[in-house]
Design brief:
With 331 residues, the protein is an alpha+beta fold. It is 44% helix and 19% strand. The protein folds into two domains: 184 residues, no CATH class; 81 residues, no CATH class. α3 packs across α5. The N terminus is likely disordered.
């Protein structure tokens, strides 16, 4: 009977101890898995740091010299050149993302003239760039304030790009639209599903929304005849017909029997945009122009207006680049 009591005691003790051992083993396994997860997160952070420290090879458009710099320094230089640093931070962030995306798009569609470079510093070909010294010269006493602001914006979104169909888009931008952005097809031809016309109502509030260019009849005649127009003796009859797109941009203008694109006239007479009206008055041709830039993609003034209304940089980019989306991606 005593033996039976001893056996029962040891059985009871085993039932208590073995579950505790099992719980301890399970706890140790959980701790091990948790440590692995932390290591994995550390690895991801290392990869992100490596991305942030990746370099960009920039070709000077004039000298053709190539300078290698960090992605962060490149984006600061581009944004310094391309957007008003007094704009709202969310608008500047949108510009940072557009600039990074433009870089990735250019690298993906690299042309032979880039040689070993990733991109040029030409605003006409790719996007502008200002060195630290050029920024200081441009901003003067505001240099420190603007520089810190741009650094903050770049740091927050430098790994974000805009994609469509899993590829970086051609994230073009302009200063001010005519109140509605342009379809890329109307401006350059080709098909860009993410570069279609959208409203940009804030642009009409810009003090630079309208501009005027006066051209003497002699200068007008010289430029258009050099490009194929045949003019009569009556200047008031030289401009025969203007056809506009749905957005108001000049699609075609007939001058002296010659058909010109609105973009061609913009270049010939150094107009701020291709949305214009022209009239002849007192021996002069007067162009009244709306907007500033090609009008495709993001309007910078419109982006600033949207930011002032409380919209985020993601919402701004989503508005101007139809069907595209923001994504964190390694450079």
């Amino acid at each position: 009977m005593k033996s039976y009591s001893v056996i029962c005691f040891f059985l009871s003790l085993a039932m208590i101890l073995f579950p505790l051992v099992s719980v301890e083993k399970a706890t140790n396994v959980f701790k091990k898995e948790f440590v692995i997860t932390e290591e994995s997160e550390t690895t991801e952070k290392s990869e992100e740091t490596e991305t942030e420290n990746s370099t960009v090879k920039v070709m000077n458009a004039s000298s053709k010299n190539i300078t290698e710099m960090s992605l962060e320094d490149y984006l600061i230089g581009v944004v310094a050149a391309e957007i008003n640093p007094a704009y709202h931070e969310e608008a500047i962030k949108a510009q940072v993302v557009a600039a990074h995306t433009k870089l990735e798009y250019t690298k993906l569609h690299k042309t032979d003239n880039l040689a070993e470079a990733d991109i040029t510093d030409s605003a006409a070909t790719h996007q502008g760039f200002l060195t630290d010294d050029e920024q200081e010269e441009k901003w003067g006493e505001n240099y420190k304030t603007y520089r810190e602001k741009l650094e903050k914006c770049v740091e927050e979104v430098m790994n974000v790009i805009i994609i469509y169909d899993n590829e970086p888009i051609n994230a073009v931008f302009h200063a001010i639209s005519n109140g509605q952005t342009e379809n890329a097809t109307d401006v350059w031809g080709g098909e860009y599903p993410y570069l279609v016309s959208v409203q940009s109502v804030g642009d009409k509030l810009s003090p630079a929304y309208k501009s005027e260019v006066t051209v003497t009849s002699d200068d007008f005649k010289k430029k258009v005849t050099e490009n194929g127009a045949k003019l009569g003796d009556e200047p008031s009859k030289w401009v025969e017909k203007i056809t506009n797109t749905d957005t108001g941009m000049v699609k075609e203008i007939i001058i002296g029997g010659k058909s010109f694109k609105g973009t061609e006239i913009r270049t010939l007479f150094d107009l701020k945009s291709s949305t214009f009206a022209v009239k002849y008055n007192d021996e002069n041709f007067i162009f009244t122009v709306c907007g500033y830039g090609h009008g495709v993609g993001m309007s910078q003034y419109g982006a600033n207006y949207m930011a002032q209304q409380g919209l985020s940089y993601e919402q701004i980019l989503s508005h101007y680049y139809t069907n595209a989306k923001c994504e964190i991606r390694n450079a």
